[in-house]
Amino acid sequence: MVKIDHRFVNPGRIAATGGRRLIFPARLSRSFMPTARLRTSTASSASRAPAARGIPAKASADSTSVDERVYAAVSKALLSGKLRPGTPLRERALAEALGCTRGAIRKVLARLGMEKRLVLEHNRGAFVPNPSIEDMRGIYRARRIVEAGVVATLFGQLSREQGAALRKHVQAEQRAFKEGRREDAIRLAGEFHLLLARMTGSEELLSYLQRLVANTELYKALYDSAEAASCAPREHEQIIEALSAASLARALSVALGHLDELEQRVIAGAGAAQQAPDLASLFATGGW
Q1: Rounded to an integer, what distance in angstroms lies between the CA atom of residue 195 and that of residue 165?
Q2: 228 is a domain residue
Q3: Is there a single domain that holds both residue 186 and residue 241?
Q4: Residue-wise DSSP of 89-158
Q5: pLDDT score of 84
Q6: Which of 177, 160, 180, 166 lies closest to 236 in space, CA to CA?
Q7: CA distance 68 to 252
Q8: 90 in any annotated domain
Q9: Is a pLDDT exceeding 70 seen at residue 23?
Q10: Residue percentage of the chain with pLDDT more than 70
Q11: Do the beta carbons of residue 144 and residue 213 sit within 8 Å?
């Protein structure tokens, strides 16, 4: 016979076990109840979790897609050369043109500012860079120093697969020029040098060169003529050949000569763009 302490009896909580009637203490019987409720609650939460998690994930993916679309559009416009130095990029106008929020525009402008493709001024907004001649010379000087190291590292070390990848990239450059896709041609020309840097295996070097190339791509878009820029694929082919030839001095001469020629064209174009018109010659023809 089971002895019952009536102080703990909760009438009605009875279980039939082995033919005997056992009365569980109230405080003991209560200890069983939360377990069932906890399991029910946990199962219910688990069934709801995927839906709850799915909404933010989709929203995040959509936001990333919009950001990348806007980034690609603004980058393409910059490389097209149609945005002149000093042009302001207004958030409202861009948001209306690209069918997105001003918040998305703001994030993209900040990203392009970090990449030095735009100038961001506090309380004024974003502007297409208007670099000085000295600024541009400094960037090209840095590129020569860095890319001399890239050439020295890769000289005589290119694998057959790497050589094939470089030649395939040059073919893409050639197609872009032939099809009149100037912004793609400028982007691909810059990416050729980044591909070489990536083959060195140094992420730090690649990251630094990416910032330099971003600047010089914009200089080309602003100041280099489409006709002159068409020589880039041919010069890139010469660099590939020189990397596999017998002379490191020759390879350095080809690679650095390529940058020298590009700098000279850009500086000449910038000088012509910044030159004030000769008012005497302008008004001498009459007809005003």
Answers
A1: 9
A2: yes
A3: yes
A4: E-HHHHHHHHTS-HHHHHHHHHHHHHTTSSEEETTTEEE-----HHHHHHHHHHHHHHHHHHHHHHTTT-
A5: 87
A6: 166
A7: 37
A8: yes
A9: no
A10: 73
A11: no
How far apart CA 192 and CA 236 sit, in angstroms, is 8
Per-residue pLDDT at 271: 84
Structural domain boundaries enclosing 102: 63-127
Residue 17 bridge partners (DSSP)? 20
Domain count, the chain: 3
Angle at 223 between CA 234 and CA 112, to 5 degrees: 95
Flag whether pLDDT at 77 surpasses 70. yes
- 89 shares its domain with 20: no
Nearest to 262 by CA among 216, 205, 218: 216
Tell me which of 97, 127, 157 is where a domain ends: 127
By mean pLDDT, which of 1-15, 54-68, 85-99, 227-241 is the weakest? 1-15
pLDDT tens sequence across 143-164: 999 999 999 999 999 999 999 9
- For position 286, what pLDDT does the model report? 52
User: Which DSSP helix (H) or strand (E) runs through 14?
Assistant: strand 9-17
DSSP class per residue in 233-288: HHHHHHHHHHHTSS-HHHHHHHHHHHHHHHHHHHHHHHHHHHSPP-HHHHHHT---
